[in-house]
Amino acid sequence: MTTRTHSIERAVLLALTAIAIAACGGSASGRPVASARPDPTGSALKPSAAPPSVEAPVPSEGPSADPTVEPSPAPTAHPPVPAGPVRPAVRAWSRQRTVFAGDCGVPAASVDAGGRYHVVASCDTRIRYAVSADGRTWTAHTFARPAHRLEVDPQVAVDGRTLYLAYTRLRPVDGGCGDDGLTDVGVYYRTKRLPDGAWSAAVRIGHVGDHLQSFRVVDRVIHETFVSADGRGPVSYGRQAGSTFSAIRLPEAVATSLRIGDDGRPRIAFTTQHTLRLATVGRGGKLAVTTLFDGKDMAIVGPSLVLGAGNRAYLTWTAQQPWGGGCADGERPYPRKGVYFGTDASGAWQVKRLSSVPGASSIALDPDAGIAHTVISQQRGLRYLARDAAGAWSWQDIPDTDSTWALAVRHEPRTDALLVLAQSYGDGSPQIVAIIGSARRS
Fold first, then answer.
1. CB of 413 within 8 A of CB of 112?
2. What is the dihedral of CA 84, 86, 89, 95, to 10 degrees?
3. Tens digit of pLDDT for each residue in 266-292?
4. Which end of the chain is less packed: N or C, by CB atoms within 10 Å?
5. How far apart are the C-alpha atoms of 110 and 234, rounded to whole Å?
6. Which pTM does this prediction carry?
């Protein structure tokens, strides 16, 4: 490995670690987060009284029966990713447009039924929101935060004609040895009526000390994954219906990606230290967990999950070398490192490595055409890959993205366009940018 390649891969690993920390409870301000304690027991969903609006502690829930854990599926034979672009699914890419300027964390995005894009991010520990009808012209708003509070790691979700914005609130405290000086106050959310309603006041859900990871709303029922106990506790799935909140622990989970199926059941892709797992929350709050990928001695990070027809799962994730900061860390070979894709669309699990270079990834689905759209970060910029309904792959490099890092991709069904959100350092200052891909259906 050349010195240049080694330096690039080390930079990639550091960036991936930052994204993984943000995904599993870190803050956009660079706050370090203690590892969640592995919890092999799990717990059933347990209703409790509605959490109080004041910042008072709530007793934690105890463990219950073990979840059902199924063995890892054997990889199914599959055609390789083509060596060059083959009939790409996008005919043109727009130039980069600034959504947020400044020091911003990993953004989240959603598309409403009217085709409008909604993007949120934490910039300088304040929540920012931007909306666009075409992905080219953006209108941004910065929320005022309470005195002596910081707000980070937002998520956004659309439920019918209501837009939800959720995030984690922090309280600065006197730090010390091993203490970052920040305490998790809890997860809060706001709503607005689409398209032009006013934002509601912030309301807390869950327990004091929770830190948000992922967030969805279906039929006014809020679904989330979160880290408890100020980033030290286990990672859990939470559900709030009306005034009742319930939670279930995800065994050994570190980072999560949450979707709600057509059957109303949550599916959660989550990483442990070395594996990728997929959990389905069944009746009575029982978990069925399948291990999809075992990285052995590699670190598994960055799960991204979408669901297709029949609740078939499509996922991407990254396997990278463990990073301890030592000079010798890069010397050991990790031949299976890279960006991976997995799906059970054929009825059996298929796992494919999309790139041998670790990088951030995100996936979106066009359910009508059966196309899985994936964007990954490579050493020389962003790469777009498409898998059609027959399982054939094509790819192309997104032009003029050598100074960008992929963060999210979303599909807009009315115009068949793709929104790619990335962090850009092209002009020497950080910013969140949007790139629009004009898709081409067969």
1. no
2. 40
3. 999 999 999 999 999 998 889 999 999
4. C
5. 27
6. 0.82
Residue 415's contacts (CB-CB under 8 Å, 6 or more residues apart) are 115
Measure the CA dihedral 253/217/63/37, to 10°.
Answer: 30
Indicate the SS3 state at residue 4. helix
Cis ω on the peptide bond leading into residue 88 (within 30° of 0)?
no
pLDDT tens, residue by residue, 351-406: 999 999 999 999 999 988 899 999 999 888 999 999 999 999 999 999 999 989 88
List of residues 6+ apart from 82 with CB closer than 8 A: 393, 394, 395
Rounded Cα distance, 302 and 19, in Å: 7
What percentage of the chain exceeds 90 in pLDDT?
64
What would the DSSP string read from start to end of 374-401? Answer: EEEEETTEEEEEEE-TTS-EEEEEPTT-
Cα–Cα distance measured from residue 222 to residue 216, given in angstroms and rounded to the nearest whole number: 6
Residue 297's CB: how many other CB atoms inside 10 A?
11
Query: How high does pLDDT run on average in the chain?
Result: 82
